[in-house]
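Suppose you are handed a protein chain with no further information: no name, no annotation, nothing but its sequence. What can you learn? This example shows the usual starting point.
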Amino acid sequence: MRLYRALLVVAATASLFLGATTLQADESPAQARPGKEFCKENPDRCDEARAKRREFCAANPDKCKEQRGKMKARRAEMKAKCDADPDKCEEMKQDMRQRRDEIKAMCQADPAKCDEMKQKMRDRREGMNGAAEDSSD
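A reasonable first move is to predict its three-dimensional structure. Written in structure tokens, the prediction is:
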């Protein structure tokens, strides 16, 4: 059972970190980004997240610029990989969609477990951000 939980956490983590980069590789302009769809459904949460990001960037302009640069570089790297091997890129996207669907099904089947997993991920992310911010002081 512990192995199953660990696998779910790993899958969720991978989908969070890799999902954004693989989705960015899709060049179809008509396809809406998941963030835009989420923001249409949850405008208050998106406004809150944007406000937090603005505050962070106002307080840490160098760090914010560095993060933007890293993200741009990751997108460019993924685009280059996808341009070089579109079939593999499509396969990666399909794998991520499948993982996301599996996690979504698991969350629908057991919302409490899903909420627990989401909270653990938030805690990990905050811990990573906090450690990075502490080291810059």
